[in-house]
Amino acid sequence: MTIGSERTAWFRDTFDAVTQNMELALLGKRHVIRLTLTCLVSEGHLLIEDFPGTGKTMLARALAGTLEGSHARIQFTPDLLPSDVTGVSVYEQNKGTFNFHPGPIFHSIVLADEINRASPKTQSALLEVMEEGHVTVDGVSHDVPQPFMVIATQNPIEQAGTYPLPEAQLDRFLMKTSVGYPGAEATEELLHDSRVRDRAALVKPIMGMDLVRDMSRIADEVHVDGAVVTYVRKLAEASRGMEHVRLGVSPRGCLALIRVIKTWAAADGREYVVPEDVAELAHPVLSHRLILDGEAQFRGVEADQVVDELLDRVRVPSLRA
Predict the structure, then answer these.
(1) In Å, what is the CA distance from 100 to each residue of 80, 127, 128, 140, 276?
(2) Are 10 and 139 in contact (CB under 8 A)?
(3) What angle do CA 62, 113, 78 make, to 5 degrees?
(4) DSSP 8-state symbol, 159
């Protein structure tokens, strides 16, 4: 079953409109914004790792401001408890029962700011909800709103008093990216508008959560040729035997890559994916899933370098016309 040109055009136009709206808050970062929207439509979660002051929190707030849904921000600190994230059951004496008081995780868009500053116990409170869409408290499951997305940020240079995310939790994030410094033109425009204290306030809601669900259904129908599927499989298999790689791409990583390239193709107005989509999204989807050995860290080898080598090693397929 094909999507149809009208639905594909609607998807592309809606995607572009949301991107332009978010660019009011984050100047000159169209590619990062498109990655964020791709992650949302693909029903995944995003990890942003970058230096202070580059707009990590602004990106999350711009997305929340664009959608007509609820959002919350959790500032992760060493003394944050799991119940501060998920909620807690409180005994009400006048009723003689325990009532569940939901925590900030029960919102559509949740910003987990500086997630690596919280203890591993608190970090693990996100594992269940990010994978299964519900929270279990005192043996009772509570569903979170759908669609649901966690945007977590962390600072790569301040390691004192932080707790690195374990591999199991890194794998829960569909993509990992960075915002980076703006270009010269965007920087000057930002400085000329220095009177604007909060650029995220410029973003107005233009899309409801029901439209996000519609876009997700359209993206699911994008055609993936068998040659592309084989290409993704070969990338994963090759990653497991590469030098400096202790743990390669898992089947979950392969599924993640297929999901995002389908959304990326629809955002480009296509009803099918091409191998170039795989190459373009390999870094944000695969780099944080590659666990390097100690020697690689000693030599300064980074996961992005391994992904580059991986793309060079595996032959790109040729699709039929």
Answers:
(1) 19, 20, 18, 10, 48
(2) no
(3) 165
(4) -
Number of alpha carbons in the 13 Å side-chain half-sphere of residue 50: 20
Secondary structure class of 287 (helix, strand, coil): helix
Nearest CA among 231, 165, 279, 207 for reference residue 15: 207
Helix (H, G, I), strand (E, B) or coil at 87: strand
Q: Which CATH class is domain 223-321?
A: mainly alpha
Among 238, 314, 307, 236, which Cα is nearest to 275's?
A: 314
CB 79 within 8 A of CB 163: no
Extents of the domains making up the chain = 1-221, 223-321
Instruction: Give all strands (DSSP E) within 21-162, no chain letters.
Output: 46-49, 71-75, 87-92, 97-102, 109-113, 134-137, 140-143, 149-154
Cα separation, 52 vs 187, whole angstroms: 16
Asked whether the bond before 147 is cis by omega within 30 degrees of 0, the reply is yes
CATH number of 1-221: 3.40.50.300
Convert the pLDDT of each residue in 11-27 to its tens digit.
999 999 999 999 888 88
Chain segment 104-129, per-residue pLDDT in tens: 999 988 999 889 898 888 888 888 88
